[in-house]
Design goal:
Elements lengths: L11 E7 L8 E6 L2 E7 L5 E5 L14 E3 L2 E3 L6 E2 L5 E3 L14 E2 L1 E4 L2 E6 L26 E7 L3 H6 L6 H4 L8 E8 L2 E12 L2 E12 L4 E6 L4 E11 L2 E10 L6 H28 L2 E2 L11 H9 L12 E2 L13 H5 L8
Antiparallel strand pairs: 1-11, 2-3, 3-4, 4-9, 5-6, 6-7, 7-8, 10-11, 12-18, 13-14, 14-15, 15-16, 16-17, 17-18, 19-20
The protein binds FE2/S2 (inorganic) cluster and fe (ii) ion.
Length: about 350
C-alpha cells in the first residue's frame, strides 16, 4: 500500500489528556505515537505515561493496573514500577528484575493539560511548555471549555492550516481573509500576527488573530475584536496518519454576569466547532503535494514546512511527490455561522 504521507510522527510535547480526565491513583489506557500506553497519576498527584505492556508477561497496565504511592502496579502478578519504569518490587520474590523496564515518557501538567514528550529515539525534552496566563487566571477568564476530534490526516496537514489564509474565505465564508502581518520562526517556536474581519449578526467586526506555536503539539491562539478569546489547540498523533485534535477555550470575563460570559463564550466555541467540521473533510481527503503550485499571495507555506521539518527524527522520503489518502471521508456539514452571515465566495465567481 502506498504511503499517506512522507512524514513520520514528529517529536515534541503533546497533550495526552485534560488534567481532570486522570484522577489520583487512576491508570488509563491511551493510544498515541503509534503505541499503546498507560497514563496514570501517582498518589502525590504527578501524572506519568508509560508503555502499556508489562515486561514480565505482557499484561496491559491500563486495564486493571493500579497505583500504590508513586508506583505503578501490574494487574497480572503485582510487579511494581517507578515513574522511570524501573522494576521496584516483585511481591513473591526477594529480588527485583533489573532488566524489567517499561519505557517512560517525560510528562508535565500545565494550563490544565497533561502533556507528554515523545521522541522516537528517547531523546530528552529539547524545549519547555510555557504557562499561558489566561488559562491560569480564574478571576479574569472563564473556566475552560473543550472540544475534541479524531482526524484521519497526518499531523502536518492539520498544522499547515495555520498559515493558509485564503481557505477562510472559501471554506469558512469569512468576508475577508486574515491579513498576515508577520510570521516569525524561532527554533521550535513560531509567532504569527494577523488582522481579521469577523462576521456577526450585527455586521462585520475588525479583529486580530495572533497565534504562537510551542513545537508541533501546542498552539495558543488569541482572538480579539469581538471579545478576547484564547484557544489552546493541541494536535497529538495517534499514529502517522491520524490525529487527536483537542481545543481548550477561555473567554475574558465581562463582569460578574456568569450567564453572559458563558453565552458569549459558547457562541464563539460553536463557531470554531463548525469551522472544524468544515476543515475536517478537506484535511482527510486531501493529498499531500511535495511541490504545491502556490499563488504569490498565499501564506508562508514553504517557511511553515521548513519549520515543521525540524520535528522529524526519522527519514522523510518524499520522492513520490504526491501522497493520497487511502479512503474517502465524507463531509458532515452543519449550518455554519459563516454561511448564515457571510456571502458565498463561489457565487458569481
Ligand atoms: S505481567 Fe505484569 S506482573 Fe506479570
Ligand atoms: Fe479552517
Amino acid at each position: 500500500m502506498s504511503k499517506r504521507s512522507p512524514f513520520p510522527i514528529p517529536f515534541g510535547w503533546f497533550q495526552v489528556a485534560w488534567s481532570e480526565e486522570v484522577a489520583t491513583a487512576q491508570v488509563l489506557p491511551v493510544e498515541y505515537f503509534g503505541k499503546r500506553l498507560a497514563l496514570w497519576r501517582d498518589e502525590s498527584g504527578a501524572p506519568h505515561l508509560n508503555d502499556a505492556f508489562c515486561p514480565h508477561l505482557g499484561a496491559h497496565f491500563g486495564h486493571g493496573g493500579s497505583v500504590i504511592g508513586e508506583e505503578l502496579v501490574c494487574p497480572f502478578h503485582g510487579w511494581r514500577f517507578d515513574a522511570d519504569g524501573q522494576n521496584t518490587l516483585i511481591p513473591y520474590a526477594d529480588r527485583t528484575n533489573k532488566k524489567a523496564c517499561v519505557t517512560a515518557y517525560p510528562t508535565i501538567e500545565r494550563n490544565g493539560l497533561v502533556m507528554a514528550w515523545y521522541h522516537p529515539e528517547g531523546i530528552a525534552p529539547m524545549w519547555e511548555i510555557p504557562e499561558i496566563p489566561e488559562f491560569n487566571d480564574p478571576s479574569g477568564f472563564t473556566q475552560m471549555v473543550t472540544r475534541e476530534y479524531t482526524v484521519h490526516a497526518p499531523w502536518q496537514e492539520l498544522a499547515e492550516n495555520g498559515v493558509d489564509a485564503a481557505h477562510f474565505r472559501y471554506v469558512h465564508h469569512t468576508e475577508e481573509v486574515p491579513e498576515l502581518q508577520s510570521y516569525e520562526i524561532d527554533g521550535p517556536f513560531t509567532k504569527m500576527r494577523s488582522s481579521q474581519k469577523f462576521p456577526t449578526p450585527r455586521g462585520v467586526v475588525d479583529g486580530r488573530i495572533d497565534a504562537d506555536s510551542f513545537g508541533p503539539g501546542l498552539s495558543s491562539v488569541h482572538f480579539s475584536g469581538i471579545i478576547d478569546t484564547i484557544l489552546m489547540g493541541c494536535n497529538t498523533p495517534i499514529d502517522e496518519d491520524t490525529c487527536h485534535m483537542r481545543f481548550s477555550f477561555t473567554v475574558r470575563k465581562l463582569g460578574a454576569d456568569e450567564a453572559l460570559n458563558s453565552s458569549v463564550g459558547a457562541a464563539f466555541v460553536d463557531e470554531v466547532h463548525r469551522q472544524v467540521l468544515e476543515d475536517k473533510p478537506i484535511w482527510e481527503n486531501k493529498a499531500h503535494l511535495v511541490r504545491p503550485a502556490l499563488a504569490a499571495t498565499d501564506g508562508p507555506f514553504m517557511k511553515f514546512r521548513k519549520w515543521a521539518g525540524q520535528f522529524y527524527a526519522e527519514t522523510v522520503d518524499d520522492s513520490a511527490l504526491v501522497y493520497e489518502p487511502q479512503a474517502d471521508y465524507p463531509a458532515v456539514l452543519g449550518e455554519t455561522a459563516s454561511r448564515k452571515y457571510g456571502s458565498d465566495p463561489f457565487a458569481n465567481a
